């Protein structure tokens, strides 16, 4: 068995033919009446200033133009726990009426499947609104580190700044430790990637693992001036800008390990996605998805992404829902194997 997903090196899943245009006219009028004068809250499971925060705010600034009734959209940062705090809030506490949407960690589906501590949601029961872009992860070391390549990281220990336990900043390098024999010493507790990268720059830590666009949006000079060594990337296919950086999947020595790593890095395909809680009326879900599809084409949205050096690689909500449901259907034997490599006994 091999896992295949759309967007990053995979097949396209069939889109579900359900759009706001297919909603009866009276229901569309009800949606407009509901949203008129309302405030929609965009909950972000990351700290302000991160690439995920930038992506969420780009949608927040534009989606209200295209939602019937043109509600005001505000942003609320709720970092912590690898986005679990925010995800649990949207799933369990926030109103289920379409006035709360959010952007969380792309690992929400796999963490739920694994029963990761802190998860209090079912990923497939969220209403997935749409993806702004994929989220290819990278692990890098500072230029002064003796670890210049991923092979070096297999030969000597290297300190790596991590954030929450559910974040790919810790998950990806930890899985690589368990499957490929790298020796990343993951030090947890940084509030976000900006703080972790500052620790690397100051010499407190040697390495960090984060989204490629986070590096390019915050420190493009690090790449240009070769201040960092790009050790490995996490996705189902190489990012076009990183042709010489090895894929984690390609470091696996057995077919089974490749299956496990593919299941882990499939989060890159979920990427930077917008969701709503369960129970939102279907007509409002359809309206949110339709508005999202227009928002990602909006000149202001594109300008926000271009100024932050983030590439727009969108996916509609119905197709994204299918990706999440496929992740939720991983066979039990594979789930158990992924669970074992997720364990982080050496993390602090």
Strand order of the largest sheet: 2-1-3-10-4-11
Q: Can you name the CATH architecture of the largest domain?
A: 3-Layer(aba) Sandwich
Let me know the CATH homologous superfamily of the largest domain. Bordetella uptake gene, domain 1
Write down how many β-strands occur, each being a DSSP E stretch of 2 or more residues: 11
Stretches where pLDDT is under 50 for at least 5 consecutive residues are: 1-17
Tally the helices.
15
Q: Work out the helicity level.
A: 40-55%
Order of helices and strands: HEHEHEHEEHEHEHEHHEHHEHHEHH
Distance between the termini: 35 Å
Shape: globular
Q: Summarize the biggest pleated sheet.
A: 6 strands, mixed
Q: Residue-averaged pLDDT, rounded?
A: 89
CATH topology of the largest domain: D-Maltodextrin-Binding Protein, domain 2
Description:
This protein folds into two domains: 187 residues, Bordetella uptake gene, domain 1 (D-Maltodextrin-Binding Protein, domain 2, 3-Layer(aba) Sandwich), CATH 3.40.190; 130 residues, D-Maltodextrin-Binding Protein, domain 2. It is α/β, with parallel strands linked by helices. Helix 2 links the parallel strand 1 and strand 2. The N terminus is likely disordered. Helix content is 42%, strand content 16%. A six-stranded mixed beta sheet has the order 2-1-3-10-4-11, with helices on both faces. The chain has a five-stranded mixed beta sheet with strand order 7-6-8-5-9, sandwiched between helices. The two termini are 35 Å apart. The longest helix is centred in the N-terminal third of the chain and has 16 residues. It is globular, with a radius of gyration of 20 Å. It is built from 15 helices and eleven strands.
């Amino acid at each position: 068995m091999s896992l295949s997903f759309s967007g990053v090196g995979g097949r396209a899943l069939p889109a579900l033919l359900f759009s706001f245009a297919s909603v009866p006219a009276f229901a569309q009028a009800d949606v407009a009446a509901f949203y008129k004068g309302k405030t929609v809250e965009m909950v972000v499971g990351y700290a302000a200033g991160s690439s995920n925060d930038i992506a969420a705010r780009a949608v927040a600034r534009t989606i209200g133009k295209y939602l019937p009734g043109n509600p005001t959209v505000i942003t609320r940062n709720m970092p912590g726990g690898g986005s679990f705090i925010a995800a649990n809030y949207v799933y369990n506490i926030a109103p289920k009426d379409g006035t709360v949407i959010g952007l969380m960690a792309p690992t929400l589906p796999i963490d739920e499947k694994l029963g990761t501590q802190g998860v209090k949601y079912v990923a497939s029961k969220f209403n997935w609104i749409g993806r702004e872009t994929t989220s290819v992860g990278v692990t890098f070391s500072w230029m002064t580190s003796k670890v210049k390549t991923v092979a070096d990281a297999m030969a000597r220990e290297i300190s790596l700044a991590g954030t929450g336990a559910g974040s790919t900043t810790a998950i990806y390098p930890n899985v690589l430790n368990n499957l490929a024999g790298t020796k990343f010493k993951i030090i947890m507790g940084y509030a976000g990637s900006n703080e972790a990268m500052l620790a690397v720059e100051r010499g407190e830590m040697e390495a960090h693992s984060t989204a490629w666009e986070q590096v390019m949006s915050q420190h493009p000079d690090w790449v240009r001036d070769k201040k960092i060594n790009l050790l490995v990337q996490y996705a189902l296919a190489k990012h076009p800008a990183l042709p010489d950086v090895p894929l984690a999947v390609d470091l696996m020595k057995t077919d089974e390990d490749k299956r496990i790593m593919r299941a882990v890095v499939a989060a890159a395909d979920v990427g930077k996605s917008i969701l709503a809680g369960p129970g939102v009326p279907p007509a409002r879900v359809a309206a949110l998805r339709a508005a999202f599809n227009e928002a990602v084409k909006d000149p202001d949205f594109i300008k926000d992404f271009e100024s932050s050096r983030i590439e727009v690689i969108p996916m509609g909500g119905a197709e994204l829902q299918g990706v999440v449901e496929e992740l939720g259907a991983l066979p039990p034997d594979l789930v158990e194997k992924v669970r074992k490599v997720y364990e982080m006994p050496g993390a602090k």
